[in-house]
Specification:
- Helix content is 19%, strand content 39%.
- It is of the alpha+beta class.
- The strands form two sheets. It has a 16-stranded mixed beta sheet that branches.
- The radius of gyration is 19 Å and the shape is globular.
- Bound molecules: pyrrole-2-carboxylate.
- Pyrrole-2-carboxylate (PYC) binds next to helix 3 and helix 5.
Length: 323
């Protein structure tokens, strides 16, 4: 029987599971190469750690690997119920809270290398953690698509460490009581994007090969007086983000900056579908007038330390997963 030790936490409601013992050895030099090896050879590990009966579909896992740069604290690969994520802000906040819980880091700045670039996290007082994310930008504005059961809608395609389609004119009620319907309609939006060949481009290479837009983000007025907006985010595996989604907020900030609706340094407070919040701001990206560097702040709390067991006799040793 093998075991894997994980620390579980949640960031503004969204769970993160950091593997601290029992991770597979990954081939490759860079974090991006190791992520590719993880995708190629360790689907069983991903499923067993994230899926039921040990986990559930909303969990984002984090593997800690050798960083690309010796000055970084760690490299990190995020994974979920369907594969790997390019980047994850709530997950980064969860990793920082976990490393602090383990006594591996203290207050201050810490660099983490992800497959799509280095991010810098600040561990502050009262569980507040801020992440300076990767360079974020809007790729396409006012893209029109016809969505099954919803009709024509308009949205922006933006990169915030993952690819997002951001929609304001959806006409839906962003209420926590409507989650089933919101997941269904957002899934239809994603299918409409695929049908119409609308996609992002790889932001890490000159060639910019196509990348799937796998996150859908809907906006509405906030219910909290201390927030600027409320969102609903559909994640790639069909689950919704309980937090306001940090890469989604980065994409939103890139669009607000491009529309001159948010100034360099100005705060944007994003409420999630469950009423938690992230605070975002940006500074201009060096040598890229079309892009910004967002910083996202939120809190994370440790919920448990778990030793996962994998018994060969267990008929569900590989997890119960749809994907
Ligand atoms: O906070 O970036 C984020 C995120 C991505 C998917 C779930 N959370």
């Amino acid at each position: 029987m093998e075991t894997v030790t994980v620390i579980d936490s949640h960031t503004e409601g969204e769970p993160t599971r950091v593997v601290i013992e029992g991770a597979p050895h990954l081939n490759g030099h860079s974090v991006a190469e190791k992520a590719a090896d993880f995708r190629k050879r360790h689907e069983d590990f991903r499923r067993a750690v994230i899926g039921e009966p040990r986990g559930h579909d909303a969990i984002v896992g984090a593997l800690l690997v050798e960083p690309d740069d010796a000055s970084s604290e760690t490299g990190v690969i995020f994974f979920n119920n369907v594969g790997t994520l390019h980047m994850c802000v709530h997950g980064t906040i969860g990793v920082i809270a976990t490393l602090a819980h383990l006594g591996r880091i203290t207050r201050g700045l810490h660099r983490l290398d992800t497959p799509v670039g280095t991010v810098t996290a600040h561990l502050g007082e009262n569980s507040l953690i801020s992440v300076e994310n990767v360079v974020s930008f809007r790729h396409q504005k006012d893209v029109e698509i016809d969505v099954e059961g919803l009709g024509p809608i308009t949205g922006d395609v933006a990169w915030g460490g993952n690819w997002f389609f951001l929609v304001e004119d959806h006409g839906l009620d962003l209420a926590a009581t409507e989650l089933g319907e919101l997941c269904r309609v957002a899934g239809e939006i994603r299918r409409a994007l695929e049908r119409n060949g609308i996609h992002g481009v790889d932001p890490t290479t000159e060639e910019g090969s196509f990348q799937v837009i796998d996150h859908i983000e809907l906006f509405d007025r906030p219910t909290r007086e201390d927030c600027d907006s409320r969102n609903f985010v559909l994640c790639p595996g069909g689950e919704y983000d309980r937090s306001p989604c940090g890469t989604g907020l980065s994409a939103k900030i890139a669009c607000l900056a491009a529309d001159r609706r948010l100034r360099n340094g100005q705060r944007w407070v994003q409420e999630s579908i469950i009423g938690s919040r992230f605070i975002g701001r940006y500074h201009d990206a060096k040598d890229r007038p079309d892009a910004v560097v967002p910083t996202i702040s939120g809190g994370a709390w440790i919920t448990g330390r778990n030793e996962l067991h994998f018994d060969e006799e267990d008929p569900f040793v590989e997890g119960i997963l749809r994907n």
